Amino acid sequence: QVQLVESGGGLVQAGGSLRLSCSASGRSFRTYVAGWFRQAPGKEREFVATITWSGKSTHYADSVKGRFTISRDDTKNTVYLQMNSLKPEDTGVYYCATGGRPYGTGPPMIAENEYNYWGQGTQVTVSS
Predict the structure, then answer these.
(1) How many other β-carbons are positioned within 10 Å of the β-carbon of residue 86?
(2) 51 close to 57: Cβ distance less than 8 angstroms
């Protein structure tokens, strides 16, 4: 079983950067896909980015492509989301999640119901 804790959120001006961290407990974390989702005020939770268990493949929502980078460091049991050139519309609660099958392969996992474990979320606020 995997437990996830996000950190690194905060208040930043438009054009600035933040790096979110997702710290995982459980040895099996390294065998699963990890992803980031976000939920803006008054909106549904949406997909942001995902990374395969191996870290060799990533996929991003069009809205963040070229600005955000997802990565993982399995020696630290941590997944990161580097966010650059932030925009006010990036504001929301950011959640990390993990799921799929151990050492799984397939198309990018972009749906919430493909993930089994979720963190509590961290707030990101981008001011104009």
Answers:
(1) 22
(2) yes
